[in-house]
Write a structure and sequence with these properties.
The protein is built from nine helices and ten strands. By secondary structure, it is an alpha/beta fold. Helix 1 packs parallel to helix 9, helix 4 runs parallel beside helix 5 and helix 7 runs parallel beside helix 9.
Length: 260
């Protein structure tokens, strides 16, 4: 059972809600994924007319799905902007959980870790349960934990790239240095095998959006990711064999008959 901020969750797959072909497909994908948490971006401006009706329909869909909402500060580029957005999200969504994003580079959407740590410290002091989108840097992770974060969300690769795990060594190091902190790999996973790999490394969960939403069949892909996450977790708990440099025969030679 995954535990984040003293809340037990029945799934190790988190699902983003952006870029789906239709609300109906999003609803079916959430069901297929068996996700316990969905991430939602805060709209900065209140809609009117059609936009408002679409927003109300979206919230009806999320409520009927019976999942926990994790608002995020997507699109923020400074600590001040992210803090203000988080405060707004708490009022709009009625939750103190926040996925904290502070983007520092436009092409890779890499986090600005300096602003991120500052925002995490302020929001933690204000009672937020902060889920920081970060790099796999050990020093940054340590500062985030010291700032009050009880969960870390290291990226696998740039957002939406589908490249998988670019730095396996870094993720292994994070797991070794922070054995009690839940690690949720966020961003860059493109296929279910990427999710299984993250789980086999000992990560606690993964967050998927683009790989599901932009698949030819998002519902089928959501199910595939759910199965991959479960398989990867089972493999990690089973204790995978260590890679070897030389071949080792699976059939023993001792006792084998030799013809002269």
């Amino acid at each position: 059972m995954l535990r984040c901020y003293d809340v037990e969750l029945g799934s190790r797959l988190l699902l983003g809600t952006a870029r789906y072909p239709s609300p109906a497909i999003l609803s079916e994908a959430i069901k297929a994924s068996r996700a316990a948490i969905v991430t939602v971006s805060l709209r900065r401006e209140l809609g009117s007319g059609r936009d408002r009706r679409e927003g109300e329909a979206f919230w009806t869909l999320i409520r009927e799905a019976g999942v926990r909402v994790l608002p995020n500060t997507a699109g923020c580029h400074s600590a001040k902007e992210a803090i203000t957005t988080a405060q707004m999200a708490r009022e709009v969504f009625g939750t103190h959980w926040i996925k904290l994003e502070v983007i520092g580079e436009a092409d890779t959407l890499q986090p600005d870790v300096f602003e991120l740590v500052e925002a995490a410290r302020v929001l933690s002091d204000e009672g937020f349960a902060v889920f920081p989108y970060t790099t796999e840097d050990l020093v940054v992770a340590d500062k985030l934990v010291n700032a009050g974060c009880r969960v870390l969300m290291p990226w696998g690769a740039p957002i939406g790239s589908g490249r998988g795990l670019n730095n396996v060594f870094g993720l292994r190091a994070l797991r070794a240095h922070f054995p009690e902190v839940p690690l949720i790999v966020d961003a860059g996973l493109g296929v279910p095998s990427h999710a299984a790999h993250a789980m086999e490394l000992g990560c606690d969960a993964v967050l998927i959006n683009t790989a599901v939403a932009q698949a030819a069949d998002p519902v089928a892909m959501a199910l595939a990711f759910a199965e991959a996450v479960a398989a990867g977790r089972r493999a990690y708990l089973a204790g995978p064999m260590e890679p070897r440099d030389m071949a080792v025969p699976s059939t023993p030679v001792l006792g084998k008959a030799f013809l002269s």
